[in-house]
Structure formats: structure tokens, C-alpha cells
Amino acid sequence: MHVVIVGGGWAGLAAAVELCQHGARVTVLEAAPQLGGRARGLDSTLNGQRIDNGQHLLLGAYRETLRLLNILGIPEASVFERRPLQLMYKAIDRPDIRITCPSLPAPLHLVTALLNAEGLTLAERLNALSICRGLLRSGFKIDDDISVAAWLSHHKQSPALIRALWEPLCLAVLNTPLHNASVQVFLRVLQDAFTRSRSDSDLLLSRVDLGNTFPEPARRFIEQHGGTVKLSHRAKGLTVQNNAVRNVSVNDYGIAADHVILAIPPNACQRLMEPHTVLHGIAQRLGEISHEPICTVYIQYPPQTRLEMPMIGLLDTTTQWVFDRSLYGQPGLMAAVISGPGPHMAMGKSELSAHVASELARVFPHWSTSEHGPEHSLVIREKYATFACRPGINTLRPGAATPVRGCWLAGDHTDTGYPATLEGAVRSGVECARLIIADG
Predict the structure, then answer these.
(1) What is the DSSP letter of 278?
(2) Rg (CA), the chain
(3) By the 8 A CB rule, do 356 and 299 touch?
(4) CA separation for the pair 421, 37 (Å, rounded)
(5) Mean pLDDT, 10 residues at a time, the chain of 440 residues
(6) Minimal CA–CA distance to 255: which of 245, 241, 265, 264?
(7) Burial class (CB in 10 A: 0-12, 13-18, 19+), 219
(8) At residue 23, what are phi and psi to the nearest 5 degrees?
(9) Could you give all domains of the chain from N- to C-terminal order, each with its CATH number?
(10) Comparing C-alpha atoms, which of 109, 13, 3 is closest to residue 430?
């Protein structure tokens, strides 16, 4: 059985690893000169340091990702530092907020964390606890997929609490502003992170760049099991005969296939599907999926510069999160993350770097810099970083199977129930592989 996987991001590689483990012959086609898709490592101009194309964060609840790393023979501790969930938010006009999950069974650890949260008033803590109690009683179920903002308003969450807790959490989880964000998908993430096991809410902080976390180890595994990985190979078309996929055209030749997994973004997937009438319905739905950006601004400070935690959230600033890259062996390098749309998207790179640096200078006035600010910075904009996780999005997301035999879909935009996360991508790839294995 020969399976051609179009796309060498985390979804395509997850499918390839799962298939190789079960003896399938796999060919991975990646249009870019490197693997990883929207979660990859880059060689940068910041003193030649290797960075990521965006700052990603994994959770202990990402069980499929951790299972595949185990298959690849990669100990978790070699690529991640696991820490119990502790969130800290800083703002100019209010005390720091700290939320720490204690070592208690789920969901008691969440209840205790909110009850003891520092920097929130008693009224704000009780306000947050009331909505959590309701979620636990309902099993995190909600009938209508409304916006997170409408849901919070219905549950009488105060504007101050929304600003301090729910808004930054929603942006971090869905990369979609509150008023546009799907409450069903938001609650799915909260349920998986806080109701099964205490360790599911742990933060997994990467020790290595994203390319060496999963994509490169996956490539080695695929090749060791007789598979092939072809970089700079863009799929240009599919051959469908008798309602079954037969061939993938790439560059100037074709590759025969028993199965094809399209593990590429919606717009690229749509282009391959449109010539085939039977796939028009899926292609149309994919065309209705919009996207949201993520900006990461890397700023190099003196090596002694540190955050008191690996990451800190900022309130009422363009910058939403700051990550200390010293854990990666890059002392003094900070990654400032801006999720979703906003005026920052219209700024030039130099203007945005200066703007973020000025915000950090106000929040962390003790950081030493030259009179002109930090000497080195780099802006990375992913304009199509994630799909827009809006109310009703799950009705647009296709499943793994298509009406064409042997043609499958994978990617974080497919019907995983998750937002656009690495775990969602991995789960979609594994599901495709298992369906193919079952199909024989």
C-alpha cells in the first residue's frame, strides 16, 4: 500500500509516522524547502540564532503529540520542560495577577487556583468560580455556538474580570478576539485541560526549536522505515478515475498512489479539489474558512535579562505575551507575541519592533538597554497563522474522509473539535492514518 501525503507540516508528518509504524509505504511531498509548516525552526539574523517562526506552547493534555514523540524514541524531558500551570499577567494600572494550579486532583486544582488567585478581588474570584461551577455541572456542554463575549455576558462576568482573565485566555487558546470566538471550541479546550487529570493543564515549554521537536525526528523515522520525504515538491493536481484517487502530479511528473492525504492549508487544498466535481462541496466549505494572524517580535536584550517566569502575559498593551528564550539556551532573547488582528498589522517592521520595545520598557523598567533601545530585533508575521475560530466554524470543517475513495484530509482546520493547535494537527493526521489502515 502506497500512501502519498501532500504536506510536511505536523498533520502530514503525524499521519506518515502512524502509517510507517503499521508497515505502509509513505511518500511525503512538501512544497517548502523544509518541514514543519506553520510550526518550524528558522535560522535568523539575530546573531545567527535558530528561532521559531512563531512562539508555540503545548499542554500536558496534548496526548497524541506526546504519544508520537514516544514512538519516535524522544523522551519528553529532552525536548520539553514540564511545569504545573502558573499564569502571571502584568499591567501598568493594577497589581500583578497570578494564578497557580496546586497539586490536587482535577478539577479541584482549577477551583483552588481561582479561589486563591492573587491580584483579583474577592468579587472577581467568586465571579470566575461561579461560571466554572456551572461548566462542571453541565459537562462543559452548550447548545448554541455563540461568541465567547456573548457567553461571558450571559453569565454576568464583570468587565474587569473579562479584561484580566477571559480575554487574554481566549486569544491565547483560539487566536480569535472574544466577540468573534466560538464558545464551543473554547470550552472543548478548557474541558480537556482541566477536567481529566491535573497534569493535563501542565505547560510544556520547548527546550529546542520547533523543527527539532517533531518534524526532523519524524523525517528520520519515516526514512528509517522505508518512506520518502521530498522537499520543494509542490503537488499540482490529482488524478481521479472511477471515483478513486490514482495519481498525484508534482513538478513535471506523477506519483501513483493507493491513498492520498491532503495535509495542506484550506486554500491549497481547495485548488487541488476544484477540478473534480465530486469534491466541489468540500472545496466550497474550505473556501469559507477565514484566517487570523500571529506576530512574533524577537528582541535581544543583554544576556542577564530575565523574566521571573518563562512567560508573562501583558494587559492593555499591543504585546500580549512575552516568552523568555533563555530556556532554549538564548539568554536575553525575548519573544513578544501578538495574537489576532489589530492596528499592529499595518505597522512596518521597524515601527512594530520599536512599539513593542517601548511597551516592554514601561512594564519592565529595570531591563537595561542602550539609549536607543535593544540593538537587535526581528519581526515574523504569519498572516494565515490559524483559521478564524468563529461561532459555527465546526459546520465548515470537513472530516477526514471525502467522497473520492482513497482521498483523505488532514490539518488543524479539519473536524477535530480543537482550535488551530499542534495537537489538533497531530490528531487529524493520526485519524487519517488509522482510517487508511482500517480500509486496508
Answers:
(1) G
(2) 22
(3) yes
(4) 12
(5) 96 98 96 92 81 87 95 94 93 88 92 93 93 90 92 92 91 93 95 92 91 95 97 95 95 93 96 95 95 94 91 94 91 93 93 93 82 76 94 96 97 95 96 93
(6) 245
(7) buried
(8) 90, 5
(9) 2-41+54-75+207-289+396-439 (3.50.50.60), 85-201 (no CATH), 291-387 (3.90.660.20)
(10) 13
Q: Point out which residues pair with 59 in neighbouring strands.
A: 203
Q: Which three cell numbers stand for residue 205?
A: 515549554
- Number of neighbouring beta carbons within 10 Å of residue 95: 11
Contacts of residue 75, Cβ cutoff 8 Å, sequence gap at least 6: none
Pull the grid cell for residue 264.
495542506
- In a 10 Å sphere around its CB, with 0-12 CB exposed, 13-18 middle and 19+ buried, how is residue 235 labelled? buried
pLDDT at 373: 60
Cell 503529540 belongs to: 65
Nearest-CA neighbor of 339 among 379, 310, 382? 382
Taking the whole predicted model, whether its pTM rises above 0.85 is answered as yes
Amino acid in the structure at residue 13: L
CA distance 60 to 227: 30
Bond prior to 107 in cis (omega within 30° of 0) = yes
In three-state secondary structure terms, 320 is coil
Distance set, CA 232 to CA 32, 200, 235, 247 (Å): 5, 37, 10, 18
State how far the Cα of 144 lies from the Cα of 392, in Å rounded to an integer. Answer: 9
Closest CA to 291 of 379, 381, 409: 381
Measure the CA–CA gap between 202 and 34, rounded to whole angstroms: 30
Q: Are 260 and 270 in contact (CB under 8 A)?
A: no
C-alpha cell at 146: 455563540
Q: Locate the DSSP E strands across 222-263.
A: 228-231, 235-241, 244-250, 253-256, 259-262
Residue 177 C-alpha cell reads as 478576539
